[in-house]
Specification:
Strand order of the largest sheet: 1-2
Shape: globular
Distance between the termini: 48 Å
Oligomer: single chain
Radius of gyration: 26 Å
Number of helices: 31
Strand content: under 5%
Low-confidence stretches: 79-88, 652-677
């Protein structure tokens, strides 16, 4: 019997209507249309954004969501299985409807009174109706956060939102601050400029909505299939081609969706079976997919939500963040690629026959709209300097091409699917951001956020490395229980100012937090992306997570590199940036060869002592001094040269975790062993 679907036609219609209303409202504000003379204050506009998207949270997300492992099991059943995002979930209940109506009514009431809130200071002295509305929106925001971000981040938000009630009574001096009574605290959270309506929601309402819809449009108009086919045409023929295709297609998918788990569930059903058929073990195949998919939040030009929140916290254009993130993202995927190549050479894994793969030029010609869309988006961001408007023009281009292009089916049904997916994506992000605003509000209202940086600097004694290590551990722990964007907002207030005070470049400090908050997706004990990939690969979850950690080793090292060497995030002269880039490529090569125990490109085994030498040299090449650069080059070169001294050619290694049946099913010709592509 088919499981009951939550989004029945009436509710789908509601989601579509609210999505259209929210997008038109955003465009009216962004393009200054002022339709019907509607010119909104910022607070009134943000309340209306909440009035549109928060009710959707209670439509698309049930009280109890489908567990991740159940979603993975559904995906593993194949394309004939029901969509795990819409099946096996309870229908919309009466309490969902009640929450929707209360949310809409409260937000509309506050929007109508936006001018009075500003003029008469309702943040501190409000009429009874506004105070009641504040309590209601506070509670609704917490429930929306629970449904979208999970219980852990909700409990954290609840604690920090209540923290100003007892701030002056805490025994720890650094946590003591201004105290509020409960009604005033509710007003500050809801009607102040630093709570629910703080920088995260302001960024979402101006920049983030357009870019999120662009990612959905790119996917629904055929971009996902195009990038997968393009990856196959370029990399499929070479050794370990199936895994290299997974790396490239997952990186491209990351531009459309910043969610690591979503990327795994989207590309994994295609790439993991292909890797297993070509001879990769189930554990390694899952690790490749998880590691590549977790790079979505750091991959330009469309990065994860946290990168857009950086625009407000750092106070720079998104284009500057895009440029800063380019070298680290390239190094991350280069590290995965080189390890896959070394693993494939060491284990004699082969590519696919050329005649079974798409051809590159015809694939590019068929996919010209998607290539042009990315070029237009990136080019217009730099040329027009209007990051709030550019995504909408490119979305219009993609939709027009999809509708008018011969041979492409994009009719009413496909358009409604696009709107439903857009509504689901936007409502979930707005739900998280509104709830996380309570954390910001609690720290800001007490004044503690201003003193924490000073206290942290005093605690570590001006030791940059020590505070970076402490920050990395904190990011990792928070990333296990919070979304990347939630962890980023918290640490951007608590830790980043202290790191910047110690001389770290602001862009590097903020990117450091994003990188380390995202490593939890592939790192035990939580490793959600790795666990999802393990389910699809039918491999042990913990072993898959460890394999993903090895493949993603660069992600643990690079953040320290660019925090100490700002040239890696393009914050230096062109000459220094180029030098740092070249040295870091050599560093990634040294790390990849050391981790795999194979001299990539020379196809020789690297003994354990030389692996240690190569790893140390690789790490040193990320640092900014002449001494570390020279030392790193010497160590990496020594590890390679000494590994090449034995004359006897290495035999193909038999893996303990290999799948013998998989190797038999892929009798494909082997390209020259020295080819590295």
């Amino acid at each position: 019997m088919k499981a009951e679907t939550r989004l029945t036609p009436p509710w789908r219609g509601t989601v579509i209507a609210l999505t259209l209303l929210g997008v038109l409202l955003t465009m009216n504000q962004v393009f200054f249309w002022n339709v019907g003379g509607l010119s909104l204050l910022t607070n009134a506009y943000l309340y209306l954004i909440l009035a549109v998207f928060l009710p959707m949270v209670f439509i698309v997300n049930p009280v109890r969501k489908v567990p991740l492992l159940e979603k993975v099991a559904k995906k593993a059943e194949g394309p004939q299985a029901e969509d795990p995002d819409t099946s096996a979930e309870a229908p919309v209940r009466w309490f969902d409807v009640a929450l929707m109506l209360v949310t809409a009514a409260v937000c509309i009431y506050l929007a109508v009174n936006g001018t009075r809130i500003k003029t008469f200071g309702w943040e501190y002295m409000a009429p009874d109706a506004a105070t009641v509305a504040s309590f209601l929106l506070w509670l609704v925001a917490l429930e929306a956060l629970r449904r979208t971000g999970g219980l852990v981040v909700t409990l954290i938000a609840l604690i920090f939102s209540l923290y100003p009630l007892v701030a002056k009574y805490l025994p720890i001096p650094v946590l003591q601050g201004v105290t509020y009574d409960l009604p005033t605290l509710a007003q500050v959270h809801v009607m102040g400029a630093e709570g629910i309506l703080g920088l995260p929601l302001q960024t979402a309402g101006t920049i983030l909505i357009g870019f999120l819809i662009f990612g959905v449009a790119l996917q629904h108009t055929g971009g996902a299939d195009f990038f997968h086919n393009l990856s196959m045409s370029i990399f499929g023929r070479y050794r370990g081609g199936a895994a290299k295709v997974s790396v490239a297609s997952s990186a491209a998918m990351g531009m459309m969706s910043g969610s690591a788990v979503s990327n795994v569930l989207t590309t994994g059903p295609m790439t993991i079976p292909a890797m297993k058929r070509s001879g990769f073990s189930a554990t390694y195949a899952g690790g490749v997919e998880a590691t590549a998919s977790s790079g979505g939040s750091i991959t330009p030009p469309i990065m994860g939500t946290a990168a857009f929140l950086m625009v407000s916290f750092v106070g720079v254009p998104y284009t500057e963040i895009l440029v800063a993130a380019t070298i680290p993202a390239f190094l991350y995927f280069l590290g995965i690629y080189l390890q896959v190549d070394g693993y494939s050479a060491r284990n004699g894994l082969k590519g696919a026959p050329v005649d079974t793969l798409p051809r590159t030029l015809p694939t590019l010609l068929r996919g010209w709209p998607y290539v042009l869309a990315l070029v237009l988006l990136t080019g217009m961001l730099f040329i027009t300097n209007s990051e709030t408007k550019v995504p909408y023009w490119v979305i219009l281009f993609l939709l027009l091409v999809a509708v008018l292009r011969p041979g492409q089916k994009f009719g009413f049904r496909e358009f409604t699917e696009f709107l439903v997916d857009s509504g689901r994506t936007l409502s979930n992000i707005i739900g998280i951001i509104a709830g996380v605003g309570l954390i910001v509000g609690g720290l800001t209202a007490t004044g503690v956020s201003l003193s924490l940086a000073r206290e942290l600097v005093a605690l570590v004694g001006d030791n940059v490395v020590l505070i970076l290590i402490a920050g990395a551990i904190t990011c990792f722990i928070l990333g296990m229980g919070m979304t990347i964007s939630a962890a980023y907002v918290f640490l951007a207030i608590v830790m980043v100012p202290a790191v910047v005070d110690l001389g770290v470049n602001p862009l590097a400090a903020h990117l450091f937090v994003i990188y380390w908050a995202s490593v939890s997706y592939i790192t035990p004990p939580v490793g959600l992306a790795a666990f999802a990939a393990a389910g699809l690969a039918k491999a042990p979850a913990m072993a898959t997570s460890i394999a993903a950690m090895k493949l993603g080793a660069v992600k643990y090292v690079v953040p320290f590199g660019f925090a100490l060497n700002p040239a890696l995030v393009a914050q230096d002269s062109p000459g220094r940036i180029l030098l740092a880039f070249v040295l870091s490529i050599a560093g990634v090569y040294g790390l990849a060869s050391a981790i795999e125990g194979w001299v990539v490109g020379f196809d020789r085994r690297m003994p354990i002592p030389l692996r240690l030498v190569g790893a140390v040299g690789g790490f040193l090449l990320f640092l900014p001094t002449v001494l570390t650069a020279v030392g790193g080059i010497v160590l990496v070169a020594a590890s390679v040269v000494l590994s090449l001294l034995p004359v006897k050619a290495p035999e193909t290694e038999t893996r303990d975790d290999a799948d013998p049946e998989a190797a038999v099913t892929a009798p494909i010709p082997t390209p020259p062993a020295s080819t590295v592509t």
